[in-house]
Amino acid sequence: MSDPGASGAGLERAAASAVGDLSHVDDSSQKQGKPRSLWSDAWGELRRKPTFIISLVIIFIVVVMAAFPSLFTSVDPRAANLDNYLKTPSADAWFGYDVQGYDVYARAIYGARASLLVGLFSTLLTVLIGSVVGIFASYAKSWVDSLLSRFGDIFAGVPFVLGAIVILTTFNSPTENPSAVRIITQVVLSIAVLSWPVSMRIMRSATLVAKQQDYVKAARGLGASPLRIVFRHLLPNTVAPVLVYATIALGAFIGAEATLAFLGIGLRPPVVSWGVMISESRDYFQAAPHMLLFPAGFVTITVLAFVILGDAVRDALDPKSR
Amino acid sequence: MSRSRSVSWLAVPVALVMTLSACGGGTSSDSAAGGNEDGTVSIYGTEPKANLLPANTTEAGGSKAVEALYTRLVGFQPEDGKTFNLAAESITTADAKVYSIKLKQGWKFHDGTEVKAKNFVDAWNYGAYAPNAQQASSFFAQIQGYDDVAPAGEGATPTAQKMSGLEVVGDYEFKVTLKGPFSVFTSQIGYLPFAPLPDAFFADPKAFEAKPIGNGPMKFVERTPNALIKLERFADYQGEDKVHFKTLDIKIYSSQETAYQDLVGGKLDFMEALPPSAKIGDKHKADLGDRVLNANLLGISTIAIPYYVPGFNNLDLRKAIALAINREQITKTVLANSYTPVDGWVPPGIEGYEANTCADFCKYDKVKAKEYFTKSGFTGKLTIQSNADGGRKEPLEAACNSIKDALGVDCEFVGATNFGAFRQIVDGKQLTGLSRSDWSADYPSIENFLNPIFKTGASSNDSAYSNPAVDAQLAKADSTADKNEAIKAYQEAHKLIAKDLPSIPVWTEKGIGGYSKNLSAAKLTFKRDGQLSAFRVKA
Questions:
Q1: Mutate to test the interface with A, among B279, B326, B329 (most CBs of A within 10 A)
Q2: pTM above 0.95, yes or no
Q3: Using H for helix, E for strand and C for coil, what is the string for A12-65?
Q4: Which CATH class is domain B299-509?
C-alpha cells in the first residue's frame, strides 16, 4: 500500500460523467414505465450482485468484531503466558500464540477496532474537508478556485508515506510516550491532511458539471441563495462519486494504518491493531509465520471487501456503464 | 563501558573489496594468507549520543569509534581481560597509592605530534574538571585532588582546575597519586576516559570535536550523523594491536534485524550481538555456520527502580517486583537461551563473584511477590522504559507481563525510539517508571560493577541510589591495597546493596556475535567489542 490517495485517481473523470448522467435518469426510467430515482435504481442493480453481497457480509462481520469483540473470543488479548511461547495454531488457539504468549486470534479480533476506527475517522474527515473545499472552489470565483486547487495540489504532491513520517515524527519526539487517544488522533489527522485533495477534486469536478444543469440555472433564476442551491440541488446530485471514493478509501486507509504502524510511527503497543501485530511479528516471520499471516490476512480481506464494495457501488451509480 | 553495548557490531564491506580485486586482472586469486591488508571492514553501530571525546563517551554507540581512535596506557586481552602495556612502557607502584608511569617513545597522534606525558595529564584534568561536564568524569574520582576540580553537591564551584595527584615528571614520565591505595587502578587506566588528548584539542576544542585526532590504530575520516562513521588505518601506529585492513566503516543502524540481514547478505561484516529473532531455533547457526563468535561477557542486565519516582522509595515494592519476574522462563523463550538468569549484581566470571547474593528476592515466587506487593500498598501503574530497538523490547515486555501476572498490577513497556534518546531520559533523571539498566564492564573487576552504579552520584547510578553505608564500604574497599582483601571488602558492599534492591538483577548475556563471509577471521572480546586487530579481510 503505497498511496491511499491513488485509488481516487480515476474517479475524478467518472464523477463528471456520472453527474452528467443524472439529468437523464428520469427519462430512462420513464421508458421502463416505473419512475425510479438514481438511488433506487442503483439499489436494484446492487441487490443482484454477488460481489456486493459478499463484501457487505464481510464488512458487517468486521464491524461487529470491532464493536463487540467479546462475541468472538473470551480470551483477553493482553493476557500473556510464556508457556505458550510461539505455539502454532491448535484447537485451543486457532491462530496460535505469539512471542509474548499472547493469543493471536484474540488479538486479531480486538485489533479490528483500532484499525477500523482509524479507517472510518480518516475517511469521514477526508470526505468532509474535501467536499466542503471542493464545492466551495467550484462555486466560487475562478481565481479562488485556482487558489484552492493549487493549495490542494501541494498536499496531493507530497508522497503519502513521506508526509506521514514527517508529520508523526514532528509531533512525537522520540522521548515522548504519547497516549493511545493522541496517537490515533494524530494518525487520523495525518491521513486526512494528506488525502483530502482527492475527494476535493472529485467533488469539484462533479459540482462543475452539475452547476451547468438546467435545474440549477432555474433555481438561480428564481433567486435561490447559494447555500440553498448547494444543499438542495448540488449536494444530492454530486455526493454519489464521493461516496464511491469514500468506500474504496476506507479500505485503503486501513492499509495505511498498517503501513504506519509497521514503520513504528503509527499506532503502537499497548494499542492492539492489525498494523501493530504485523509490526511485532516481522522479526519472527521465519520462526513463526502464523504471527504475521493471520493479522495480514485480516487486513487484506477487509481492504478487499471495501474496494469490491466501492467498485460495485460505482458500477451501480453509473448507468452509462451498463 | 557502559550502558548496553548490546547493540554493536562490526562489519566489512566486502563487496567493495571483491570488486577491487576483480579489477586487478582476474588471475590473482591466491593472495597472501594474511588477507587483504587494504580491505574495508564494516561493523554494526548505533548513533553516538555525544561528541567523540574519550571522557564524554560512556555508551556503546560512541565508544565503538572512540575505542579505535585512542590508545590508552594498557590494553586488555580479548579473552579474559588481563592487561598488557600499550602506550605505557612500565607502570610501577610500591603501595598501590603512588604510581609511576613511563611512556613508550616515538608514539604519535594522527596529526604527527608525539604522545607525551603531558597529553595524558592534560586530558585527565580536562575530563575530571566539573565545568567541562564530561560524562565519565567520576572515573577520575580516585585521583588525589579530584574533589577540588569536581566538588560534590549541586552548584558547588571547583577550587582548582587541575588534580594535585597528577604530576608530569618528564616528557615520557608522569606520576599519579591516588587518594588512597587502589589496586584496580592498573586496570582502570585501560578505560576510555584515560586516553590522552593531543595539543590540537586544547588549542581548538570545537574543531577537534568535528574531526577528532587520537593516537589509536585508526584515524578519523568522516562522520555522517545517523548513517556512518568512517575510520582509516593510521600508518604510523606502533602498538601491537594494529589492524590488518585499511578502512573501517561503522554503519549506524536503527534495527538489529536489518543489520543482521545485511550481515547474512554480506553487506555488513561484523556484529558483536545478534538480534533475538536470529537466535530463535538457532537460526544464526544455520545462517552463519562457523562464522558465529562466542565470548564470555562481563555484563549484567538489571531493571532500575528510580528512587525519585513517587511511590518507588518502598522496599516492599522492590522485593515484590524482584520476585515477580520469571527469569528462567523469559531467558528460555523470548531471549532464546542467549541469556542466563542472575542472582546478584556481579556476574559469574568476575573475580569475587558470589552466587546467591540476591537469592531471597531474585527468584520467581508468585505467592511471595503478591504478599510483598500487598504489604507495599503501592497503587497505580508500572512501566518499564527502554529503547525499543536492538531487541530490547521483547524481553522487557515479557518481564512486564510477568509482573502483571504475579502482582495483578498494570504494567506496560514504554519504548524510546533509540538508545541516545533513552539515555537522555535516564541521565536527565526524567524516568517515570522502571527502566532498563544494563551494564557491561569497562575492565574486568568487581569494582567496576559497584562503584559506577551504586555510589552516590556515580556516572551510571540510574536509580539515583544513595546509601551512606554502601558509600563508606566502597570507599574502604577502594583504599585497600591488598587485592584479595579489597575483593572481600567489595563483596561486603555487594551484600549491603542486595538489602536495598536499588535495581533488580535479571539476566546476563552470553556473548554471541558473527561475521560475514567477506572476513576470514574476527574475534569478540569480553567487552563485546570486535577485536579489530584480529580481523582479516578475505583476499
A1: B329
A2: no
A3: HHHHHHHHHHHHHHHHHHHHHCCCCCHHHHHHHHHHCCHHHHHHHHHHHHHHHH
A4: alpha beta
